[in-house]
Amino acid sequence: MYIIGIYDVNKKRVGKIKKLFDRYMFWTQNSVFEGKLTKVQLRELRNKLDGIIDPEEDQVIFYQLGNQKWLNKTILGKQVDDDPPNFI
Amino acid sequence: MYIIGIYDVNKKRVGKIKKLFDRYMFWTQNSVFEGKLTKVQLRELRNKLDGIIDPEEDQVIFYQLGNQKWLNKTILGKQVDDDPPNFI
């Protein structure tokens, strides 16, 4: 599956959440990650996220696609950073 | 087409860009919009964005799908806000 993961979380938790996403997917833009995951990997990532986020304050959205070919991606402005900023 | 639009832009331009997206798509999360657009509407939105963003600083990404049915969306934590915050 191809996954786009986006998050809007309290500043206190952004660092931890970004580090976790970094282990499963690649950074695309602030609070946005993409990548291919198996069902098992996605479940693993979701369970770990559930252990970090505050469901009252934070939100993570996963867009799942059966096949990356169904997705057409266009970028306006700054093209993809080769080395994404390491700031959180 | 079903479109997910995400942006990472200079604070000076966030308000203008959010207002423009609001006219074409619905707010999903900070800097994230979704919605159905025709090719003409998407081209129109892109041209208007090109007139606002600074290509050196700002980035807008459009994920286009031929059909919304191909997309599976799951939300962890805070569910969709009924009335999205009007702060920018």
Automatic annotation (TrEMBL), chains A, B:
GO biological process: defense response to virus; maintenance of CRISPR repeat elements
Keywords: Antiviral defense, Endonuclease, Hydrolase, Magnesium, Metal-binding, Nuclease
Top-level taxon in the UniProt lineage: Bacteria
Database matches in InterPro entries: CRISPR_associated_Cas2, Virulence_VapD/CRISPR_Cas2
CDD domains referenced in this protein's UniProt entry, alphabetically: Cas2_I_II_III
GO molecular function: hydrolase activity; metal ion binding; RNA endonuclease activity
Cofactors required: Mg(2+)
Signal peptide: none
Record-listed E.C. numbers: 3.1.-.-
Sites where the protein binds Mg(2+): 8
Role according to the record: CRISPR (clustered regularly interspaced short palindromic repeat), is an adaptive immune system that provides protection against mobile genetic elements (viruses, transposable elements and conjugative plasmids). CRISPR clusters contain sequences complementary to antecedent mobile elements and target invading nucleic acids. CRISPR clusters are transcribed and processed into CRISPR RNA (crRNA). Functions as a ssRNA-specific endoribonuclease. Involved in the integration of spacer DNA into the CRISPR cassette.
Xref: HAMAP family: Cas2
NCBIfam families for this protein: cas2
Subunit structure: Homodimer, forms a heterotetramer with a Cas1 homodimer.
Family membership noted in the UniProt record: Belongs to the CRISPR-associated endoribonuclease Cas2 protein family.
Full protein name: CRISPR-associated endoribonuclease Cas2
Gene: cas2
